[in-house]
Amino acid sequence: MKIAPACVLLLSGCAGAQSALDADGPSALAIENLIFLFLAVCGVAFVLVMGVMTWALVRGRNEPAGRPQTERSMGRVVAGAVVATFLVITFLTAASFYATPSLDRGKADPPTILVRGQQWWWQFSYLDADPAKTFQTANELHIPVGTDVRLRLEASDVIHSFWVPNLTGKQDLVPGRENVLTLNAAKPGVYRGQCAEFCGLQHSHMALLVIAEEPADYARWLDVQRGLATAPTDGEAAAGKLVFMSKPCAACHTIRGTEAVGTTGPDLTHIGSRSTIGAGLLDNTRGSISAWIADPQTLKPGNNMPLVPVTSEELRQLSAYMKGLQ
């Protein structure tokens, strides 16, 4: 009776928002098929090895000791096993190389997004031939359903690795080098990604969300994101804007349409529309924003945001302003 719950627990990892066995894109499907191929081949090899071992033990027990043909027979078995191992490894290696090109499908002019990994967050620059339409966001990547999206992968500090299991395989982001990756989501949904290369103290807190939307919804999202920051609509948020501009915040962050043009931290122009802060660390609520501003090093030790002295009233004002930036 205890086996069934254990099986259910194990199988729960085969689906969900972060599972390589729940493919929703061509690249992920190629990798999923490769996983099942490896599983099948290795399963057959395991059964054969166990069978030969059992046969050898049983036969050795039934034959007289020192019989010459036993040694010769085992020699042939070992030689056959070596040849079979070589063939299996060669086959699996060829299958891996065949699946690898699916990570970059190489379409001529897909939408292009520059992905820059930083300790410990993701910067996404939506590129356009018209510089006025180019904008940045952080930790949430929006893509249209059924369209190849080219990702240009770069790193600002150390090696990171971009991995969204439901949509594609892993690809490294290496300082001084640009790699490419193609995303294509077959259906709308929210897919969780993660840095898959140890990159420092907060590596495990470097998550991202890929939000796949119908083309019309994606176009509307683009229009909103290209716009300037939302002006405060109440006194508390307006006071929060004044606090933001008077503190070091404006020197590190950009809020388009204001005098804040810093480039050290994430672009906050539309931070209120994101579902999380801190690269997936906390839900995006006023309480979380206040806690993050009050003591970022306790929540995410080692991150590059300094402790900015603010009063409790200023915290309330800042959180109102940040949440209003939709």
Automatic annotation (TrEMBL):
Top EC class for this record: translocase
Catalytic activity: 4 Fe(II)-[cytochrome c] + O2 + 8 H(+)(in) = 4 Fe(III)-[cytochrome c] + 2 H2O + 4 H(+)(out)
One cellular-component annotation, GO: membrane
Pfam families: COX2 (PF00116), Cytochrom_C (PF00034)
Membrane topology summary: Multi-pass membrane protein
Location of the Cytochrome c domain: 235-326
Protein name, as recorded: cytochrome-c oxidase
Native source species: Rhizobium acidisoli
